[in-house]
Amino acid sequence: MNAIRKIGILLPAVLLCSVPCASPAQIAIGIGISVRTAPPPLPVYVQPPCPTDGWLWTPGYWGWGDAGYYWVPGVWVAPPRVGVLWTPGYWGYEGGMYGWHAGYWGPHVGFYGGVNYGGGYGGVGFIGGGWRGGVFRYNTAVVRVNTTVVRNVYVDRTVINNTTVINNHASFNGPGGIDRRPNAQEQAALREQHIQKTSAQIQHENVAKNDPQARFSTNHGHPAHAAMARPMGNNHPGGNGANNHPQGNNRPGGNGGMNHPQGNNHPGGNGGMNHPQGNNHPGGNNPGGGHPGNGGNPHGNAGQGHPNGQPGGNAHPANHPPKENHPQRG
Length: 330
Known about the structure:
Shape: globular
Structural class: alpha/beta
Helix content: 10-25%
Number of strands: 14
Order of helices and strands: HHEEEEEEEEEEEEEHHHE
Strand order of the largest sheet: 1-8-7-13
């Protein structure tokens, strides 16, 4: 009887020890997806200028879907609140599988596998700027900004240390990729309170996931749109140059129909650009940049410079020179 009791006590301990133990980094970060195939190398691209003051850069990465790996373009996004920074996600090899460690927002940049994503993310921390007095200041020695709209800039080349940057295009941590473990500061950042990716980031990723051209099986590691100035929204049928529609739903993009921030149902005609936040403004030919869009009235041809959603008929005089502010694409 005593022997049976001893076996009953020891058996749970034996079973517990037989379960593989995760590393501290795995426990803190968590793994969302595990696959047997290594992610492709990171593509080379040019970071587009930051289009809006206060937005932060989120590097591009390889996601995984039913069709295999697909590229999620790097993009500037609005942070969920003042004072937080983005820690990119990364792929890590463990136990014969490649696991995806999701990115997050937090007070400090944590461990992202040592992957050199560029744009200020050289493998350790972030050197592209920082918060000061509730305002984000951009280090233009590292990141690109549109200085016509972004004024909080400085230049600090001392943070660039090429001896510590992993200068290859490996997109994962582990054998054959990046050999690096979290340091003490990164471990501390892992224990801080985190905020998950924003709805704009989720939409941006979903658009890429459903784009056949973003799949590695199609682009072979060279995506047509590797980086964007603004997040993509849902249901954007792409006309010529109809990229970079931030966060809005159901915006069909005509020729050059770019950069409609946050409004729903803006059909972009030729040159239908830069209508901030107004709903249901159908864009006619040259519908004039910069309508405040407080009403739902249609703008006629050349109807520029009408405040507060006033309808623009033919030959209405323009009250301001058109400024289109097209962000460059990578």
